[in-house]
């Protein structure tokens, strides 16, 4: 929008100053002749400054006689400079054109720890987690409980049972699910073939890095507390065969499975 000088002249005649000082009125435009609202205008030698209005106009009402320089600045533009001579008791009209200037942004510097690429095993972990079957403990979740026993962390998972292992077997806890109910004691539920037996329960098969290390029928269900939380990258918990991915639906997995993925590197 181009602003006509008629408005400025009318305002200049209306504002008369009864002293030997000059009124300076002006307008700040861009290269296309459109106003630049918000530009800052200053007569730096006189320590006078003002901001232009919505239509690009500005005014200094008490400028002493002499040669002066007015500077207009706006974001995205090079400064515009006009010189003028004030003779006193007159009105000077100025037009300042600003030339656009490309803005150069500071380089961005990324901070923080580098994010490690997912291993193939953990990519599969994340894919299964996205499907919504089973329960998953990520590294971020485990890190909050680094100093806890693994059995205490697993105990917070709905549908799991932590079975106390006999002291003769080293104590600790084995992991089972209550979805299949209690099972009668089997001869294999012993500690190296000795007594006392483990309680009857539906024990989960145990996998470490995709390899099955214990399943129904093997002696001595393993102690969960022998695994350190800070050694794990993730844990998957499947509380029955309906939740198990097909890859882990093997003989002995009728009670479900728990999968441990260890940290690499």
Give a description of the structure:
The protein has two domains: 5-98, Immunoglobulin-like; 120-262, TonB-dependent receptor, plug domain (Ferric Hydroxamate Uptake Protein, Chain A, domain 1). Helices cover 12% and strands 32% of the residues. The protein has helices at 5-14, 120-131, 139-143, 150-154; strands spanning 21-30, 40-43, 48-51, 57-64, 66-73, 80-86, 91-98, 135-137, 160-164, 173-177, 202-203, 205-208, 211-214, 232-238, 257-262. The strands form four sheets. A five-stranded mixed sheet has the order 8-14-15-12-13. Strand 9 and strand 10 (173-177) form a beta hairpin. The longest helix has 12 residues, at 120-131. Mean pLDDT is 83; it is low at 3-18.
Highlighted features:
Immunoglobulin-like; Ferric Hydroxamate Uptake Protein, Chain A, domain 1; single chain; 2 domains; mainly beta; 12% helix; 4 helices; disordered N terminus; four-stranded antiparallel beta sheet; five-stranded mixed beta sheet; 265 residues
